[in-house]
Specification:
The structure is a homodimer of 339-residue chains. With 339 residues, the first copy, chain A, is of the alpha+beta class. Chain A has two domains: 136 residues, 60s Ribosomal Protein L30, Chain: A, CATH 3.30.1330; 161 residues, PurM-like C-terminal domain (Phosphoribosyl-aminoimidazole Synthetase, Chain A, domain 2), CATH 3.90.650.10. Helix content of chain A is 31%, strand content 23%. Chain A is built from nine helices and 13 strands. In chain A, β4, α3 and β5 form a beta-alpha-beta unit. At the A-B interface, α1, β2, β3, β4 and β5 of A face α1, β2, β3, β4 and β5 of B. β3 of chain A pairs antiparallel with β2 of chain B, so a sheet runs across the interface.
C-alpha cells in the first residue's frame, strides 16, 4: 500500500490499489483559488465569478499522442495539461481548473502515476489553474482525458468566427519547434535539447489569450493541428481568407540545422516519416504544419498596437481559404486523425 | 464523405474523416439553455448564473465498462452520459452540460458514432443538459471520457462529509437491477428485459439530487461502486457509521427469479463470475454491491418529510464503517478497479 502518499520502491498501480493510488495522487494536486470542493467527492465545485465558464476536453492516447519510451510521466502530465489549457486560453479565458481521466495498466509503477500528477500540477500552476477532480480506470495502455475550465472575467469569448477583411494576423508562442523535436526523436538524432523539449513539454503562452481578448482580438485559435490547418478553421468560421507571409515567420536556426541533421541521418531514398508530423523536413513545413507547440493565432483590428509577444505574420482578406505568400499552400495541411 | 450529416451505408469513421465525422456528430447534439458557445470552437462557453459550476469526469473503456457485443452504440451513449450526470446530481446540482472525448477505431461504421451521439444527446435531454463540446481521436478500441457540468442554483453543494449520527439514510432510484442484468447477460440467460435494460441503460433519478439538497440533505453520493462501498465513502468522509436495514431493501421479484435463472444456467461447481459485478448470485448481494444503476444515497436530518421516491433504508450512527443489519458486511464491498 501507498502510505502517506509515498509508494514503496517498485510498487505497482495494482499493488497500491485504487483508493491508495487516488490518495497519493490527490496529495500531489493542491487546490486552486477557484476550488470550492476539490478532489474526493462525486464532483468538484468551482467559483465562476463572472457567471460563465469556459470548458473543453482533449483525449491523449499512448502510442498516438505520446510514447512512454520518449516521454517521462512528468512530460506527459505537462503536455496533457497544456493541450487542454491552451484551448481555454484561446477563447480569451484564464485557465482555472483541470479534471483528469486516467486509464492506466495495473502493472505500471505507482511512481509513474505520481510523476504524471506532478507534471499535471506543475503545468496547471504555470497557467494559474489547479487539478480539481478526476477518474481512474484500469486500461491496457495509458489513456488520458483532460478537461480544462476557465474564466472570462467578464470579457466576451473570442471565437473563430469574428475575423474581418483588413484585420492583421498575429501569433504568440513558438511555431514549428515541436514538429522539429518530433522529427529529431523519430530519427534518433541526438542533441537539440530545446527542440526536443518543445515536443515533450510544449509551453503555451497562456497569458496571451486573455491579453488578446483585452486588446480586441476578433478571432483566436490554439495552433494544435498546424498553422495552415488552424487558420483554415478561422477562415471557414469567419467567411474570410487569411494570408500568411513566410518572410515574417522565423525560418532560421535552429530549425534549419535540425532539418539538415535529420536529413543526414536518413538513407537517401527512405520514405520514413512521410505523412507523419514532421515527416516533411523543410523548416518552413514545420512552421506551417506543426501544431503541438500550442501557439495562439489571433486576428486583430488594423491599427491595434500589439505587445512584443504578438508577432504579425499576415492579414485577413476577402475570400476563402488560407494563402501562403499569396498562393494556396501545396503541402499537407496538418494533422488528420483518422487517416 | 458524410454529406448533410448522413453517412453513406457502410461508410467507416476513417472514410468519413475527422471533419466530416465531427460535423455529423454535431448535427445530432443540439445546444442547451446554458450554452453560449457550443460545439465547433476551441472550447465551449456556458452560463453559470449562480457564480459556481459543478464539474466531474468519468472514463469508460471498451472491454471494461462496456462490450460492443452487449451494448448498442446508443446504449453506450446513454450509459456514459448517465455515469457523469449522476455524479453532478449527487452534489445537489442540476446537470447542465456534457463534454465528450471519443477515441474510436477508424474501421467502425460512421453510423455507430452517430448512434452513440444520439444516445448521449437523449440521456442529456433526460437530465436537462446538452453536449457542448468534445474531442475525437483514432484509437484501437472505443474510449469515452464524459465530463459533466452542473448548476447549484444558489444552493450549497451536498458533499460526502456532512452526515451526522441520528440522520436517516435514504435512497432514490434503483438498486441491484443493473448487477442482475449484468449477471443475466454474462450467463446468456434470455428474458428479463427490464433487468438487462437496467444494466445497458441505467436511469439515474437526476431530479432527486437537487430535491435532496432543497430538503436539507446532509450528505449524498452517486451509488456507482455499490451501496456498501459508497456508503463507506460517506462514513469515512463524515466520521460516522452507517447502518443499512435489509428488510427495507426491495429483495423481491424479479431479482429472486433472475438469481434462480442464472444459477440454473451454471455448472454446479463453476466459479465463473466470482469477483465480477454480479458474480455473487444472491439478490441481496446485488442490492448491496451492485453499483451501475446510479441510484442516489443521501442522509437527511431526522424528522424530514421525504417525498415517496426517497426510500428510508437505514440510519447514521456514531462510530465508523458500514453495518448491514447491525454487522459489518462480510461479502465483497464493491468494485475495485485495479484488482
Amino acid at each position: 500500500m501507498i502510505a502517506g502518499g509515498s509508494p514503496g520502491p517498485g510498487e505497482t498501480v495494482a499493488g497500491a490499489g485504487e483508493r491508495g493510488l487516488i490518495a497519493a495522487l490527490a496529495a500531489r494536486l493542491p487546490p486552486g483559488p477557484r476550488t470550492r470542493v476539490g478532489i474526493g467527492d462525486d464532483a468538484a465545485v468551482l467559483g465562476t465569478p463572472d457567471g460563465s465558464v469556459v470548458a473543453t476536453v482533449d483525449l491523449l492516447l499512448e502510442g498516438r499522442h505520446f510514447l512512454l519510451d520518449w516521454s517521462s510521466a512528468a512530460d506527459i502530465g505537462h503536455k496533457a495539461a497544456a493541450r487542454s489549457l491552451a484551448d481555454v486560453a484561446a477563447m480569451g479565458a484564464a485557465p482555472s481548473a483541470l479534471l483528469v481521466g486516467l486509464g492506466i495498466p495495473g502493472s505500471l509503477p505507482a511512481r509513474w502515476a505520481l510523476d504524471l500528477a506532478s507534471g499535471l500540477a506543475e503545468e496547471c500552476a504555470r497557467a494559474g489553474a489547479a487539478v480539481v477532480g478526476g477518474d481512474t480506470a484500469a486500461a491496457d495502455s495509458v489513456v488520458l482525458s483532460v478537461t480544462g475550465l476557465g474564466d472570462l472575467a467578464g470579457r466576451a469569448p473570442v471565437t473563430r468566427s469574428g475575423a474581418r477583411a483588413g484585420d492583421v494576423l498575429a501569433v504568440a508562442g513558438a511555431l514549428g519547434r515541436a514538429a522539429a523535436g518530433y522529427a529529431l526523436l523519430a530519427a534518433a538524432v541526438p542533441g537539440f535539447p530545446e527542440l526536443v523539449a518543445a515536443h515533450l513539454r510544449p509551453r503555451p503562452p497562456y497569458e496571451a489569450g486573455p491579453e488578446a481578448a483585452a486588446l480586441g482580438a476578433t478571432s483566436m485559435i490554439d495552433v494544435s493541428d498546424g498553422l495552415v490547418a488552424d487558420l483554415g478553421h478561422i477562415a471557414r468560421a469567419s467567411g474570410v481568407s487569411i494570408g500568411v507571409e513566410t518572410a515574417r515567420l522565423d525560418v532560421g536556426e535552429p530549425l534549419g540545422e535540425a532539418a539538415r541533421a535529420v536529413a543526414a541521418s536518413r538513407p537517401s531514398s527512405s520514405g520514413t516519416g512521410a505523412g507523419t508530423p514532421g515527416g516533411d523536413l523543410s523548416p518552413l513545413a514545420w512552421l506551417l504544419t506543426g501544431g503541438e507547440d500550442h501557439a495562439l493565432a489571433a486576428t486583430f483590428p488594423p491599427g491595434v498596437a500589439l505587445p512584443p509577444r504578438w508577432r504579425v505574420i499576415g492579414t485577413v482578406l476577402p475570400g476563402a481559404g488560407v494563402l501562403v505568400d499569396g498562393s494556396p499552400y501545396a503541402g499537407p495541411g496538418g494533422w488528420e486523425h483518422f487517416r
